[in-house]
Automatic annotation (TrEMBL):
It comes from the Bacteria. PANTHER family: HYPOXIA-INDUCIBLE FACTOR 1 ALPHA INHIBITOR-RELATED, HYPOXIA-INDUCIBLE FACTOR 1-ALPHA INHIBITOR. Gene3D superfamilies: Jelly Rolls. InterPro entries: Cupin_8 (IPR041667), JmjC_dom (IPR003347), RmlC-like_jellyroll (IPR014710). The lineage of its organism: Bacteria, Pseudomonadati, Pseudomonadota, Alphaproteobacteria, Sphingomonadales. This is Cupin. Residues 117-278 form the JmjC domain.
Length: 343
């Protein structure tokens, strides 16, 4: 993969490093955390990490021995490119997607291991329990009461555009090296985001090429860089990425594995904020300016401020969804929305 101008990363401050000597210390670090941090060597004893330190093929063999007989999805980039999985000039994707047996996909890694013009090969967001037998149990972190989704990300030297995720994220470099460039949530406008509905992997991404920023096309990116932090992870290192923080991710070695844990501190039965944004685009964005101002005030009143004056004048027991939601009320509201959206 073509290396970026090192100065763009050298000028960034490093993500703060923390220490977690045991499960209780890790739980304390994660509780209520709103800024990113790195924990060096948190997973150094994982069998997958130890296999990767032997060789890339040893790491692949470890996973292959534990793979379930199910199809795996893989993205394949064009040979001889720089590993950037992104849009093509016509805003289609510059990679193709396929499904196959893990043994065949790993055979592609083996066959291209020493080729200078090798294609990018990337398996993203692999549900670990659904695709492997004992990998999650043998390579685990004590996350307390958090109900985490455990995923694997396996690839050659690749570049994944800056994006964000709603859940909190603890990402562990299991093999190779990863560089994360992080930006606070409020930097979304300065990252020059692409489409919401046509994305490489379900989330809007920055259109900026971090290896060759174009100040004419993306003038606000300079402001975003003023807030950026960078973390380079070695095998066994972990990075906490808080909810909604933007992160640009690079696999710096010829072969890289990341295992990550996603969780929400809010109940699973609550809705997805992205769904609300999409619905607001459908129903509010193109209204006349005067009407949008009214709806902005209503959103402030019912959602963002949500002060006691919203309900104090309504008898208790008659406030409906204006009361704090519980699973039953959330279910009724979801059913109502489905009915209205289907009309």
């Amino acid at each position: 993969m073509a290396e970026a101008d090192a100065s763009i990363f050298a000028a960034m401050p490093a993500v703060q490093e923390r220490v977690a000597s045991d499960a209780a210390a890790l739980d304390a670090l994660l509780h209520g955390a709103r800024t990113p941090f790195v924990i060096r060597g948190l997973a150094r004893d994982w069998p997958l990490v130890q296999a990767g330190l032997v060789s890339a093929r040893a790491a692949r063999a470890y996973l292959l021995e534990r793979a379930r007989p199910v199809p795996f999805s893989v993205a394949l980039g064009e040979p001889g490119k720089d590993g950037r999985l992104f849009y093509s000039d016509d805003m289609a994707m510059n990679f193709r997607e396929a499904r196959g047996k893990l043994a065949d996909i790993f055979g592609g890694f083996d066959a291209n291991e020493s080729r200078a013009d090798a294609p990018a090969i990337y398996l993203g967001s692999i549900d670990v329990p659904a695709h492997f037998t004992t990998v999650a149990a043998e390579n685990t972190l004590a996350l307390g009461q958090r109900e985490a989704i455990v995923s694997l990300w396996i690839g050659t030297s690749t570049r994944i555009a800056a994006h964000n995720d709603f859940p909190d994220n603890l990402a562990v470099c299991a093999a190779g090296r990863r560089r994360f460039t992080l930006f606070p949530p409020e930097q979304f406008a300065n990252l020059h985001l692409g489409p919401i509905d046509n994305t490489p992997a379900g989330r809007a991404v920055s259109m900026v090429d971090f290896h060759a920023p174009d100040p004419d096309r993306h003038p606000r990116f300079t402001e975003a860089l003023g807030t950026a932090q960078v973390a380079v992870l070695e095998p066994g290192d972990a990075l906490f990425i808080p909810s909604m923080w933007w992160h640009h991710v690079e696999g710096l070695a010829p072969f890289n594995i990341l295992m990550n844990y996603w969780w929400r501190d809010t109940p699973r039965w609550l809705g997805q904020p992205q769904d609300a944004l999409n619905h607001a685009i459908l129903s509010i964005r193109d209204l006349p300016v005067e009407d949008k101002a009214i709806w902005r005030a209503l959103f402030d009143h019912y959602v963002f401020e949500n002060s006691p004056e919203v309900t104090d004048h309504i008898p208790e027991g008659a406030r409906g969804i204006l009361d704090p939601l519980d699973p039953a009320a959330a279910g009724r509201l979801r059913s109502f929305l489905l009915r209205t959206l289907s009309k």
